Amino acid sequence: MFYVKIFFQYMSQYIKTRLQYRTDIFVEFFSDLLSQAINLIFILVVFGHTQFLNGWNRDEIIFIYGFFLVPFAVFSAFFNIWDFNERYIVKGELDRILTRPIHSLFQIILERMELEALLGAITGLAVMLYAGLHLHINVEWYDPLLFIFFVIGGVLIYGGIFIMLACISFWADARTSLMPMMYNISNYGRYPVNIYNHIIRFVLTWILPFAFVGVYPAAFFLEKQEWFWYSFLTPVMGIIFFTISVILWNQGIKRYRGAGN
Amino acid sequence: MNAIEVKNLRKEFKAYSSRSGLAGAFRDLFTRNYKIIPAVNDINFTVKQGEMVGYIGENGAGKSTTIKMLTGILTPTSGEITVNGMNPHKEREKFVQTIGVVFGQRSQLWWDIAVQESFRLLKKVYKVSDEQYNNHMDHVIKTLDIEPLLDKPVRKLSLGQRMRCELAAALIHNPPLLFLDEPTIGLDVLVKLKIRDFLKEINEKYNTTILLTTHDLSDIEALCERVIMLDEGKVIYDGALKKLKETMDDGKEVQFQFLQNVDLTQVTALTAGMPVKWELNEKEQLFTAYIEDQDELISQLISKVVSAYKIKDIKINETSTEELIRNIYEKGAVEVG
């Protein structure tokens, strides 16, 4: 309960900070909106040229893409830890975090939240709606609930992987530039995994399970029976990966050496 | 009750040394040379509740490392720490509720929003009730004189203003133990005085234990009865500041400037039989007599010199704390009975 309360406190703090710069907020809002619109057009143009891809039709692929955007937006809003090494380890900001009575990882998530990124979820929903209408998907009462579960699962997988990457900083001095590479790899999850070869598929399912953020859960709504098994594994994988990452984090914190001052 | 108990505390860092040249860089890829350097080397001390202790040492002596271990930021390599009855690293979240920390070079406050918003959030973070907050913080805000700053964003404050707000922020939950890591770095004299007065006051009012590191020894002189001195990771002195001064005091120096031409042999001859050592600064024609700290000796010396020559200026210097500390660092150890 305390953590929920603190979450909203930080959120209001964040909004206050944003409101400090009045013109900035308008400019940013419009540029965000614009970039989302461009994103939308881009998706439609690119997929306009593909009709069938290994058993998936154009609208299904667009639907998967739209689904992917939702957990990705939530992830971007709350797991802004790609610069963890520079910001917290090299500059020693972690010192400050560690003198406050809240779990360190939770504090960093709160401090680094960027709520604007949630706009991406609207784009995602719009894309799903567009594709869904073309595909005549029927929506059952439990679908929205499962959708939420799958999104949470996807966010946890994403978050877990990136937390683990951030944890590398606790063991290695060097600034690792794995993060951009990982962003690239994560993009593969947006497309149907059966277009890749076995090894890549295995990696995207069990090692860097980005497939669980896009294809697998989306397959459920597209009524692809053969993938249902994987769809329901999404929240499970999310919990497993996130738990491992938190355990790793807690171990890493013990090895934190601080920055000299 | 002891606020801080430290037993055989040790923290080692691995320091990598790189080989020279390109070939060396390639070799470093595979095997790196490293040395294990003890930043804090088996130190022991206890601090009682309500004490104000100065923790001093040169840069890199291990002060910050110790403070970071005491506050639960770093895990010790070995040894035991008990602070406020807890192990700082094991029960970190519960433990930090009982301490306040100010790092002079790092801000606790949110850069872009008004000071009072930062306070409000910290109040929630530390689960402080409105009543406790009002009782305690009204007083803190008044004493530190930060009332007019509360609605300004932190980025618009001067360093002195910000430091006072930082201090207030560290006290929101009224902790029984306060760690200050160079709290007066870069501040002007007035702000320094204000901060010192404030620290004295909360120490008296709440019996708050304060552990302070600083390079400004006047802070220590004004606040702390006890100092712990660190050199190369080892405690080289732990005790009263006054006692340190007494033992280390090598005596006084008396400086003379004369109106007439005098040379060193003349003054030496004049004070023959007295335990005085003369030195001459040729450029400024400054004669310095080093003597033991005895009241009579000083007056004897002065009367002899004054009766023999006309003097322009006379100055009696006591060894300052700064010099004292410098001497200790150079010698590397203190022997106190």
From TrEMBL, chain A:
Domain of life: Bacteria
Keyword Transmembrane helix recorded: yes
The keyword Membrane appears for this protein: yes
Transmembrane domains' residue ranges: 25-49, 61-82, 115-133, 145-172, 199-221, 227-249
Record keywords, A-Z: Membrane, Transmembrane, Transmembrane helix
InterPro entries recorded: ABC-2_transporter-like
Pfam assignment, any one: ABC2_membrane_6
Protein name: ABC transporter permease
Originating species: Neobacillus thermocopriae
From TrEMBL, chain B:
SUPFAM superfamilies documented for this protein: P-loop containing nucleoside triphosphate hydrolases
Domain of life per record: Bacteria
PROSITE patterns referenced in this protein's UniProt entry, alphabetically: ABC_TRANSPORTER_2
ABC transporter domain: residues covered: 24-257
Matches recorded under SMART domains: AAA
Record InterPro entries: AAA+_ATPase (IPR003593), ABC_transporter-like_ATP-bd (IPR003439), ABC_transporter_ATP-binding (IPR050763), P-loop_NTPase (IPR027417)
One Pfam family cited in the UniProt record for this chain: ABC_tran
Molecular-function annotations in GO: ATP binding; ATP hydrolysis activity
Keyword terms, alphabetized: ATP-binding, Nucleotide-binding, Transport
Protein name as it appears in the record: ATP-binding cassette domain-containing protein
Keyword ATP-binding included in the entry's annotation: yes
